[in-house]
Amino acid sequence: MNLYHLKRTDNAEQIRISTPLGLESVEDCRFLLVGDADVDPSAPLHISHFGYEAWLPDKKLEKISSRYMLRYVQEGKGIYCGVPISKGYAYLTVPGVEYSITSDAEDPLKHFWVTFEGSAATETMREVFGRVVPFAEYFSNADQAISVIEEIVCGRFGKVNEHYLHISAFYRLLALHSALPRPPANIHHYDFSVYLKAMDYIEYEYNEGITVSEIAKRIHIVPSYLYRIFIKYSGISPQQALMQKRMQMATILLDQHIYTVGQVAEMVGYSDALLFSKIFKKHYGVSPTQYQKEH
Fold first, then answer.
1. Mean pLDDT across the stretch 162-172?
2. Side-chain half-sphere CA neighbours of 108 within 13 A
3. Which residue has better confidence, 152 or 207?
4. For the whole model, what pTM was predicted?
5. 29 pLDDT higher than 60
6. Helical residues (DSSP H) of the chain, grouped into ranges
């Protein structure tokens, strides 16, 4: 087992560890990364790293995950892809999927984590969790899960057969999850939750000039991931959804024959009446002025 020497990052403070084994406690650690240097990458399931991390207040991380990672919140609060997380929560990242974590300004996150990969990783996640998507949910066995990871972080296994001991510990983690009733697939499915939140912003703030980038920022995800969620659940982009809402409301206002085109443009979120007219004509095939004459 190797304890890597790390420098401070933007979102977490890290400590430098020179002793590979025998760490008694992580209470004073700000960041600790533990890796299995002898891992067999051809194994169908193998553990990449175990670790402990204490975040700085009000810090955010956005990235695309390269491996599966399970995290267990020991203390603090934060937001994972739009879902509030706190002590007792477990959350999963999935390879190739963008995610974001924001640490609370007053009560920053502290969590233990494990990364894993291999040809059997996806099927293992499907068997244990019933889905292979990122999620965040309260986990009543979180303290036991943390104890399992802390055993490895503190080097209590020694150097004999590390790979098998790590796999054994990992299956103990999965057993803790499997021991609990599996929630319905849609309850903590955070990407659907994010979609609903974004639709709420579109529904109620379309007239305030809100942009897709601003919506994504409020939900604590990156715009490209918001785009993928909308394509998944609606078949159109968030930009198209926002435009359709504005065009729908524009026709309602034009039908009343009491507002000018410029006023309607402003009332549905466009500061530029010419841009509004261009988009309206592209969407309906006629200009807003012509539409108003015909209705």
1. 80
2. 13
3. 207
4. 0.58
5. no
6. 121-129, 142-153, 162-178, 190-205, 212-219, 223-233, 238-254, 261-267, 273-284, 288-294
3-state secondary structure of 25: coil
E-strand stretches of 36-104: 46-54, 60-64, 68-75, 77-80, 83-86, 89-93, 98-103
- At residue 154, the pLDDT reads 63
| CB 118, CB 68: distance < 8 Å | no
Cβ-based neighbour number of residue 24 at 10 Å: 8
CB 60 within 8 A of CB 11: yes
Of 220, 218, 185, whose CA–CA distance to 201 is shortest?
A: 218
Backbone angles phi, psi at 205, to 5 degrees: -130, 15
At 279 the pLDDT is 95
Q: Which two tokens stand for residue 103?
A: 């640490």
8 A C-beta contact, residue 81 and residue 134: yes
Between the CA of residue 34 and those of 73, 147, 169, 271, 295, what are the distances in Å?
18, 15, 14, 53, 69
Give 269 or 190, the one with higher predicted confidence: 269
Calpha distance 260→253 (Å, rounded): 9
Task: Look up residue 85 and give its two tokens.
Answer: 């997380």
What amino acid is encoded at 134 in this protein? P
Provide the pairing of β-strand 83-86 with 110-117: unpaired
Q: What is the pLDDT of residue 244?
A: 92
Helix axes 223-233, 190-205, angle to 10 degrees: 100
* Cα 124 → chain centroid: 21
